[in-house]
Amino acid sequence: MARITAGVASSHVPAIGAAIDNKQTEEPYWKRVFSGFEKSKEWMAKAKPDVAIVVYNDHASAFSVEIVPTFALGCAAEFPPADEGWGPRPVPTVKGHPELASHIAQSVILDEFDLTICNKMEVDHGLTVPMNLLFGSPEEWPCPVIPLAVNVVLYPPPTAHRCYMLGKAIRKAVESYPEDLNVVIFGTGGMSHQISGPRAGLINSKFDKAFLDNLSKDPKKLTRISHLEFMREAGAEGIEMVMWLIMRGALDDQVNEVYRFYTVPASNTAVGHIILENKRKAAGKRPAGKIAKIAKIAKIKRAAARRKIDIRRG
Amino acid sequence: MPRKAQDYDDIPGTFVFDAERSREGYGINMFCMSLMKDENRKAFKANEAGYLKKFKLTPEQADAILKRDYNRMLELGGNIYFTAKLGATDGHSFRHLAAVMTGSTQEDYAKMMLDGGRSVEGNRSRSGRDKPAGKSKSKSKPSSKARSKRG
Question: Residue B151 and residue B131: Cα distance in Å, rounded?
Fold first, then answer.
């Protein structure tokens, strides 16, 4: 069966994409940001996901004010990079995984999460910037991607709690998919930032660091953050951190924090990043010896259970 | 009809893009979306006031666009991800627009960000309930309600 083995959260600041596209990553301002993702790229190269689910938001690229879906799942075979006003980013076309995506859609809708299905969709920096940060800038992306676009532009976005519960439904869906697939889920956006109005430039590192701590250890606490509190504490646009909770909901309650990075600023934004691994790895990823041992224990247990039944019957 | 009061109106220097603003600002945002196309950017630049006639805008909205009054555009229903397209048409980045909206020079704004950004202290609330989350009376009420709802 398919299994979600790890979650990654990362900011998706457009200026990070511009720095990559304009080859400014070695400039001191940007080096400070990019150096924080070196270890993450190494981790990702080892994690080798078969599929990545990327939770992100569209920024008036694929969706204008004409149609505003709260949760939109990309079920297409491919997702071209959107022209965000300066021509599309020079990144590879994102290949989808229509089979798993439509399986997820069917499963979570029956679990009462009324997703919008997108069989044609362009993706903007919200999705491609975190992919660059974790996969680098290859000729082709190393794995298929299932985009999940969340409305965080038109107030109100879905609540933190709703996002967390959607994560749980996605996990259930993935685990009921018959093919053995190693799935990694991304939550993107944030951290604290406000880019609109006279309060623009707001950063709240204290809030961000507590958010990272709780994301790792006590995510349920984060599901109680109200929209008012997100906007007041983390800036009007900082509310997009609700998307990180979809990722977190899709993981085990207890996780191993593998890596964390935080820096201020990238353009107007606090950059946050964390990698969380499920303690229970994908079945296919267990070393052969360990699998044999587990199978042996299970066989003994079954035999013991049978004996017990026999004794009672006797 | 006056705007319906909302709890988030208490956040200073912030225009939350909610359903009411979205309805009022539909024309502003659709105008901004049109600037995704190069031919439209050229047409707008050639005759700004004339180009705006193609959209349903109030005189106040058209005036804010022509004057590049970004805060006023937000107040009248524009959203930053849309108005940023107008900024891009003028050759400006998000950071440039942010500096403009805060009334700072580009240098001062860039320095503020490098120094860790605008502090939340003193910037939480208009009404003076400027305390960290969870301590003010105004916040404990809705959150406890939300908790009980969610079981």
Answer: 27
